[in-house]
Design brief:
The protein is mainly beta and about 400 residues long. The chain contains three helices and 33 strands.
Amino acid sequence: MKYLQFLLLLSSSFFYAQDIRSVQLFNPQTNDETAVIGFNEKLILRFDDLSNSSTVYRYTIKHLDRNWQDDGLFFTEYANGSLNGLIDQLQYSFNTLQPYTNYTLTFPNDKIQPKISGNFELIVYYDSPEKPLFTKRFSVVEDGANLALNISRTLDSRNKQLNQRVEVQAIGSNSSMTSNLNSLSLNVIQNNNWKTAIFNQKPSSTLGNKVLFQQMNLAFPGNNEFYYFDNKNMSQPFDMVAQTESIDGINYTYLHPVWAFPLNYQYQPDVNGAFYFRRNDLGIERNAEREADYSWVYFALDSDKTDKEIFVLGGFNDFTPSKENQMFYDETARKYLAKIYLKQGFYNYILATKNPDGSLNLGEINGNFWQTENLYQAFLYYQPFGRNYDGLLGYGEFRTPVR
């Protein structure tokens, strides 16, 4: 394949471009990327340092408002314990071509504990939290309301891209919700992607102890099911992998090309943009935390050239477009191509274009269909009189198909 040979020539200039990789923050009870916990639950943070050092990193947390902006609270107002803690639980990679150090943090712990609900930012750094290595969002929810979501098909002649409507019903577990209606607001996101968020929706009506959110603007593009690949076994091609090889101690994974602009919806089970690290050798499941290897993964899209920028996005890069995940057009192969250095495992991804205003269109390349199964997540915030922060009163999600 000529286009694969062309891509190989470019690999060296990007290798080791970033030391910190494969960041995950998840709730082990649900085993997904939804970083939402109650006061008695834990989150697990994992990441790799490709420098293969034994550096001890630090972390702290910061409370944010319902729109993920700084709310000006002091640390002692939202947390108990020390201002920062150490991430000193580490293990070195074993039996991998790419050496790395894997770090794990279980949080909250005896060093730092959130004492109020709401949105938080976990900040990991070396010298100073003002110069973070990375940040991850998480939320702490009270047991103040139960949220039920319903998704339906919607038709909007003014905007045909908006074709899944969300309705939310909140039932308070006590009087906190119904006695503070004016302070309530709802945020809804799709597939753990805060870049799709609809913020600050106010109650549309009440029915006894129920608060309803039935706004017509609570609507999202259905987009399409995520593409996927599985390179848990890098000695031979597997799901959606066309070819694998190792050259000079570096792994390469070449995916089958996908097609742009599908005309019809076709059901394909997915994990709504999530990713899971795995290594399986001849049927033997390895410890992916320290034994999963790294590979240059080559993505390919069969398409004529367009004037749009195209990006490979998913939970693995927080749906954030960058030069690292941007596709470029190969005139000879008549394909858009991209390569990303990833830890082996199972990945969902989507191909997005950027609109003139900088927003992302997740359906222009993949297609946009009302039948698509998406994960919708609703966050109910409140700030009653006398309180100086946005608390998270309730959280709910919806995973079933649209009818």
